[in-house]
Structure formats: structure tokens, C-alpha cells
Amino acid sequence: MNIHEYQAKELYRAYGVPTPNGFAAFSVAEAVEAAKKLPGPVWVVKAQIHAGGRGKGKFLEASAGDKGGVRLAKSIDEVKEFAEQMLGKTLVTVQTGNAGRVVNRLYIEDGSAIDRELYLSALVDRSTSRVAFIVSQAGGMNIEDVAHETPEKIHTLTIDPATGYQPFHGRKVAFALGLKGDQVKAAGKLVENLYRMVVEKDMSLLEINPLVVTKDGKLICLDGKMNFDSNALYRHPEIVELRDLGEEDQTEIEASKHDLAFVKLDGNIGCLVNGAGLAMATMDIIKLYGAEPANFLDVGGGASKEKVREAFKIILADPSVKGILVNIFGGIMRCDIIAEGVIAAAREMDIKVPLVVRLEGTNVDLGKKILKESGLKIIPADDLADAAKKITDELKQVA
Ligand code: ADP
Ligand code: MG
Fold first, then answer.
1. Is residue 55 marked as binding?
2. Signal sequence span per UniProt (predicted)?
3. Which residues contact residue 288 at a Cβ distance below 8 angstroms, ignoring those fewer than 6 apart?
């Protein structure tokens, strides 16, 4: 789960992590009120969407101006002007896709006099089973490009959970970032507090780009991207409260209501699978046969007929789906239940795209018999490769 920058900055404050003062605003009047509470002479008006690259982003509407989603205002009048231009408009950034995101919230904050822009992120590193800190002096710009072109500018350090944060971690980060004097101490405090925050709040990712050194030598976090492990949200109701459903994919929300693990993808073959591993393998084999999956969908181990029907609804609601591949292994789940779910869905929703079904496992013969006797146009498949081949062949015929 992601949260907005202004919410991330509240968390910074709670953990003693330095960040400029600022206030969220949902209307132009609130933006002006917020600006009045800050000293100036520079205010920053920042569009709040769950995507980065806002500074270099572009609005779809000409009336929003061409200065992107992060703007420096020199007066309260300018704050008002920028707020009017941005609110309700659609911001497109490298991370939003072409459709962009509507800006419904702003963050008005103190402008900082920046000397250097640095990069710092922390994430759960699966290969070492530790929290890794990744830092670079090349902050503020696209860190993926830095990683690609000049990987030597990126430094990684992991913290052993058995010892937790140790002062040498802070010093290592400080030296990697070229910090001197008092800044080394400040960096130690920063890393210590960030580590505590990441662990206590079960974050999977924290990205601060940029972390800046100000003209008067202070270290301040100017941006904040936070990602929380959804499996741990049950113990953080205060984080769940920050959820902004307007920023999430509507189908993914619908899927989560029915306890279906669903991720929307770019291809045109809808997949309905049980088990995350089998779902991954199914996506792989679709790609192997030259097509692209439209989604990842795991109906889970013990899905009911109703759940299968809901899953179908979600897949069919996606206009880019040109074919469906159902791949079920009946372990806990029985193939006859799946077959009934598929038929109920097909009858109810009048499926117009080719449907390939591969069943294996418990009650497979009964399942196949039910499908066959249904009179519906369902293409049966015997194994994974056969299923992938059949659905991709069907798509070629349509094209
Ligand atoms: P994004 O990463 O979405 O573009 P940022 O919050 O990183 O948004 O802002 C983009 C750039 O705007 C930063 O790299 C920094 O140069 C500038 N900026 C952001 N906040 C402030 C601030 N409070 N004071 C001065 N400059 C800022
Ligand atoms: Mg940024």
C-alpha cells in the first residue's frame, strides 16, 4: 500500500526525521490558508498523487500551465494561482502512464535553499533478509538512469536485524554521500530514525529523492515515497487510515473485496489461476508462446463457485482482454467446482472471447465432463503448454 507525500512527511515528523514544514490542502482556499501559516519568502506547491516524477510532469489541460506538478511560489498570490491551475487537473508523469492522475490534493510547504540533492532509499532486501539502504550523491534525477549508466555512484549497505542500527552504519552512509563535520552526526541520527521507522511500520520501501543539503548545511528530506507490506497492515490501523482509494486501480480494489489476488498488466490474455506460483508459470508460458498476459489473478487455494464467477467478471470488465486462459490445479480445490464456476460465469456474462480451460487434479474427469456437457464453447486443454498454445492460436485467428 502507498501513501501520499504529505502523509509520509507526517511520519517523518513522528520519527524525528527532518523535513520542511507544510500543510495538505484540498481546495484553493485551504492552499492559501496553508501558505499563510508558513513564513515564506518561498513556498512550494506540490501535487499529491501516488506517482513520482511530478516535478518534470505535464498536465493534460493547457489551463494548468506548463510548469509541472511541483512549483516554487514567490508570494501567497502565486500559491493561489498555482493551486487554481493544478487542482482537478490531470498530471502525467513517467510513472503514471499516458492517462495520468487527477490532482485532488496539494501540499504547500516551506521552500528550502538547496545546495546539493542526494538520494536515499531503504528496502527489504530478500537476498540478505535485511533492510538495505541505498544511497547516492546523484539525487534529484532519475535514479534508474544513474544505476544503469554509472552504477559506481550508488552505494548499498545492509543492517543486520540482530544488531540493529550501529553508529558505523551512519558513518558509512555519511561518507558515501560526501557529508562533512556536523552533517556526519546528522546523517547517523537520520539513518537510525529511518531504520526504526521502516521496521516498526513494516515498510517494504522508503525512497527519499531528494534528500538535500541546504545552503546552511542542514540535511532535510524533501520528498517521501513509502510503500507498506500489505501482509502486515492488520497491525497498523493508523496506516490503513491513510489509504487513498482514489489512487488505486478500481479493479484491484474490487478484487481485494472478494479476496482475490489481482494485478492488472498490459497484455490481452486474461488469466484465471489458483496459486501464485502457478499464476506466475502461466504468465511465463503465455509469454513463451509470444503473447502477453492481461493480468495476474490468483483465486486462491479453496475458491468457491462464487469466487470464480467474481474473478471472471473482473477479467471480462477489462476491454483489452481478447482471450481467457483458465489454468487450475485441483489440490484442495476440486475441478468439478471450478467447472461449475466457469459455466455459471459463462452463462451469466455471455463470454465473447475464446476461452481455454486446463484442469488437472482432484475430480478432473468429472470437471471435464461438466464442461463438455455444458454445450458452451470452451476449448479444453491437457497441459500448460497445450493451453498456452491453444489460446495464442485462437488470438492469431481473431487478429
Ligand atoms: P517528484 O520526485 O515527484 O518530481 P519532488 O518532491 O522530488 O517531486 O520535487 C521535485 C524537485 O522539486 C526536487 O528535486 C527539488 O529540486 C524541488 N523541491 C521539492 N520540494 C522542495 C522544497 N520544499 N524546497 C525547494 N525545492 C523543492
Ligand atoms: Mg522526488
1. yes
2. none
3. 388
